[in-house]
Each structure stands twice: as structure tokens, then as C-alpha cells.
Specification:
The protein has ten helices and ten strands. The chain has helices at about 15-25, 40-50, 55-60, 70-75, 80-85, 100-105, 145-150, 205-230, 250-255, 260-280; strands at about 5, 35, 125-130, 135-140, 160, 165-170, 185-190, 195, 235, 240. Helices cover about 40% and strands about 15% of the residues. The longest helix is centred in the last third of the chain and has 24 residues, at about 260-280. Keywords: Hydrolase, Lipid degradation, Lipid metabolism.
């Protein structure tokens, strides 16, 4: 059975995709195709290049201060932590606050695969044409520019240019791109990490928070409408509270808050596998 996997965008909340991938590895499930938007495309690219979910977690954890870390652990991570801080240091180029080139080059520094064709699993990366408002599905040629385009959140990251087109974050047009794998797989799993809960807050937000929150509201509305037309076989939606798109200092909290959704995914996968086994016994 061909499995299609769609990984949605959501900034740091997209790190919740990592325990999802670990769960698939635990069940011996390998997707036949992956579609990703924004940070979901970045995580998808790491996985499609041949890394396991556990390897991706270990790679990311080297650049974070975790709650159980001792001073010895932190000192051992010093070089990696400095790279992480440098990658996300504020820069103000024309068209965006933060340049993605350094971040992506850093993230992919140990990966030799630079094109879509070299990946072990076919990958679809979603971006949006800034001037025509068209959705663009990228699946060929250079990988890095496509990822830059897919995660170029308007007003936050600088747009990317591919083939003469100005491209921005794919979440503008398709936050969880499961529709692009429905016809290319027998069973589809979609992961939406865009839902953010900020319970009890009523203060006036700042300018950047206003942009990012409005962005999330529009994305949620679009997904709701798409789900009315056609749904994936499994839809996973971790509820991440009080973690904004760029709160990379709260990455460990993302893993913790994703745990209930992971437990639910395990139950769904067990039910699907049991159903397949029952059907095989009857035949």
C-alpha cells in the first residue's frame, strides 16, 4: 500500500512533525511520497533525504537547551547553539526581516543531497507566487531554493526568486497540502501543526504578532473549507498552546504538547493495520 504524507507549516510548531515521523518509523511505515509546506517542507526534506525521525530529533536537539541538560551538556553544545543563534539573528533585507539562506544552509550542512532527484522519497514542496497568487508545486531540480520559497512568510522572511517568479510561503495558499498526494497514494496521512491556542489572552498584540496571528486565522479558515470537500484518511492536529511561530526557544515544549496527538495516531495506525490483517485473513 502506497502511503502519502503531508506535513503542514507552522514555524517552530512544525517540530511536532518529528515525533510523527518517529511513530511511522516505529510501525515500519515508509511514505511513498511526501508533500510539505514551509517548515513542514524542511522537515519533509530531511526525512526524504534518508534520515530517520530519531536522527532528525537528535540533530535538532544538538541546537537546543533542554530541560534536563546539565552545564556540561550545554558546554558540549556551545558550538551548535552559536550556529543556531546566528542562523536566526535578525537581519532586515528588502522584503523581509530574516534571511533564510543562512538558516537553510546550516540545517542542510550535513546532507549531501541537493536536488529533488537525489532524495530517497519523492517530495513536493508548496510555494505561492506573490504576484499572481498561484500555488506552485515544486518537485524537480534544486532543493534549497524551493525550501527557501516555501518558508518565506510575508513580512518575516525574504521572498525567494525561482525562474523569474517571486515566491513566498506556501501556507498562503495551502498550509497542509494533502490534496497533492491523494491521487498518488492509497492511504494519506496529513499533519496540521498550524493550530495555536492562546487561552485567556486579551491584550493588544504587537505588529509582528498581529501579522502572524492573522496569517494563522486565514490558514485555519482555508483548511476548514478544504476538509469539507475531501479529507485525508488520517488527520493529525496537535494542539500547541502559547507557542508562536518563531518561538524556537520553546522547541522542547512543542514535543511535549504533541504527545496526546501522537498517542491518538498510534491508536489509528494500530486500527488500520488490524483491519488490513483481518481483510487478508478473510481473503
Amino acid at each position: 500500500m502506497k502511503i502519502g504524507l503531508a506535513l503542514g507549516g507552522g514555524g517552530v510548531r512544525a517540530l511536532a512533525h518529528i515525533p510523527i515521523l518517529e511513530t511511522l518509523d516505529e510501525f515500519g511505515i515508509k511514505p511513498s511520497i511526501i508533500a510539505g509546506t514551509s517548515m513542514g517542507a524542511v522537515i519533509g526534506a530531511l526525512y526524504a533525504s534518508g534520515m530517520s525521525g530519531k536522527e532528525i530529533r537528535e540533530r535538532i536537539s544538538r541546537h537546543l537547551i533542554l530541560k534536563d541538560d546539565t552545564w556540561r551538556d550545554i558546554l558540549a553544545k556551545k558550538e551548535h547553539l552559536l550556529k543556531w543563534v546566528t542562523a536566526f539573528s535578525a537581519d532586515f533585507p528588502r522584503g523581509g526581516f530574516i534571511k533564510t539562506q543562512g538558516f537553510l544552509e546550516y540545517l542542510f550542512s550535513e546532507i549531501t543531497k541537493r536536488t529533488f532527484e537525489e532524495l530517497e522519497i519523492p517530495l513536493l514542496v508548496i510555494a505561492a507566487d506573490f504576484w499572481t497568487a498561484e500555488e506552485l508545486v515544486i518537485e524537480r531540480d534544486d532543493l534549497l531554493p524551493a525550501l527557501q520559497a516555501s518558508m518565506a512568510v510575508p513580512g518575516v522572511f525574504a521572498p525567494a526568486s525561482i525562474g523569474g517568479r517571486v515566491l513566498v510561503d506556501g501556507g498562503v495558499v495551502n498550509l497542509v497540502p494533502y490534496d497533492h498526494v491523494l491521487e498518488r497514494a492509497d492511504f494519506t496521512i496529513a499533519v496540521d501543526v498550524g493550530k495555536v491556542c492562546n487561552h485567556g489572552k486579551n491584550e493588544i498584540p504587537g505588529a509582528l504578532e498581529s501579522i502572524l496571528r492573522a496569517f494563522s486565522i486565514m490558514q485555519a479558515s482555508a483548511i476548514t473549507e478544504k476538509m469539507k470537500r475531501r479529507k485525508p484518511d488520517i488527520y493529525v492536529q496537535p494542539e500547541i498552546q502559547d507557542i508562536r511561530m518563531l518561538d524556537f526557544g520553546k522547541a522542547e515544549d512543542v514535543f511535549l504538547q504533541a504527545a496526546p496527538a501522537i498517542d491518538l495516531l498510534r491508536k489509528r495506525l494500530k486500527a488500520v493495520i488490524a483491519g488490513q490483517e483481518h481483510q487478508a485473513d478473510r481473503s
